[in-house]
Design goal:
Number of domains: 1
Structural class: mainly alpha
Largest sheet: none
Distance between the termini: 45 Å
Shape: globular
Number of strands: 0
Radius of gyration: 12 Å
Mean pLDDT: 93
Number of helices: 2
Low-confidence stretches: none
């Protein structure tokens, strides 16, 4: 079955929920679930999320926390 994902759930997409969660973890920022439909920093930032969308953001954040990939300053 070929299921087309909504843009915010496309994990390889720059600005997706998973991408933003992993980036916030990487830069040691607090969790602030959000995504950018037109790519990070472009268009409107979306912060009014469903429970499913928050879970996807948290999956990205947790994935990066588990792997310990952090920006070195």
């Amino acid at each position: 079955m070929n299921v087309k994902l909504k843009p915010q759930f496309m994990r390889d997409s720059h600005g997706s929920l998973f991408d933003r969660g992993s980036a916030d973890s990487y830069y040691d920022r607090d969790r602030q679930p959000h995504w950018w439909p037109k790519g990070t920093g472009h268009g409107q930032k979306v912060e009014d999320l469903t429970a499913e969308e928050v879970a996807e953001y948290n999956a990205g954040y947790d994935h990066n926390e588990t792997n310990g990939n952090k920006k070195e300053y």
